[in-house]
Write a structure and sequence with these properties.
Elements lengths: L2 H21 L5 H10 L1 H10 L6 H8 L7 H5 L10 H13 L13
């Protein structure tokens, strides 16, 4: 899969995250607007670049016990890691660890 296809898949995932959260009663309209305006990857990078950790979205997902729907959990998925820098991945991992996220077991992928 080339980079354009990977970015397109990631953006579709961001829209699915919004829809999944909406079904739980959380309408992340600011997030949706950001993804529509910037695209999925750029929106994720912008959120990861924010110095302030306590962001409304991730806290709401924490309260719903659905951190798996967070941007942070999404960027750490093996299929999307190549879209982000090591620093961005470290930020995502740090934020999730601080919220005691149970990381799913990542099985090695075949190349």
């Amino acid at each position: 899969m080339n980079k354009e296809e990977l970015e397109s898949n990631f953006e579709a995932k961001m829209f699915r995250l919004y829809e999944d959260a909406k079904r739980l009663g959380y309408k992340a309209n600011d997030f949706l607007g950001m993804v529509r305006k910037l695209g999925g990857v750029a929106a994720a990078k912008k959120l990861l670049a924010k110095e302030k950790f306590i962001q409304e979205g991730i806290i709401k997902l924490y309260e719903l016990k659905r951190l798996d729907l967070s941007v942070e959990a999404s960027v750490l998925k093996p299929e999307y890691k190549d879209l982000f820098t090591e620093a961005e991945l470290a930020t995502a991992q740090k934020r999730l660890k601080e919220l005691n996220y149970n990381f799913p077991l990542q099985l090695p992928t075949k190349n």
